[in-house]
Amino acid sequence: MVKYQTTNGFVLGRLDLGEADRIIRLFTLESGRIDVIARGIRRSKAKLASRTEPLHEIEWRLVHGKQLPVVIGAELKSRQPILDLSELQLGFGLLELTEHSFRADETSPQWYEFLRASLNQLQPETAAIIWLAGLAKSLDQLGLNPDLPIGASRYVFRIADGQIAESGSGLELT
Known about the structure:
Blueprint: E1 5-17, E2 21-28, E3 32-38, E4 57-64, E5 69-78, H1 85-101, H2 109-119, H3 127-141, E6 156-160, E7 163-167, E8 172-173
Parallel strand pairs: 6-8
Antiparallel strand pairs: 1-2, 1-4, 2-3, 4-5, 6-7
Helix pairs in contact: 1-2, 1-3
């Protein structure tokens, strides 16, 4: 009996391998940024092909292969329809920030929750706030904390439960 690991994660990128396989880069809560192999995923009758697209949280079932884990199953956890190109651009921008902010096997529960909440509420009205929050969190993750000038305007943005709340003073991106 083959034992498998279950993990939730987002697709950050994909790389074709051979004739029908694909290497998929994931950002997971438990393992951080990892690469997995999806065998036969590029065949026309591949059942999991639609689940390997970016911008959705997926529950992955993986077995350990010789070099990389192998995908044996995937189920959608969250699915938010993308309505226009600005939402799509923001979503892919957040995924790219994620890929460049973390080394292999490095994770952050706070970033994962931020990514989940942000991708579930992609809207033109909130795009600028989400993007600025993502940039600030990415710079913080990379250890590049810019000093704000004294007297600068500061706002608190909370992205949780599908809502963006703006309040008072003091910079806090949660």
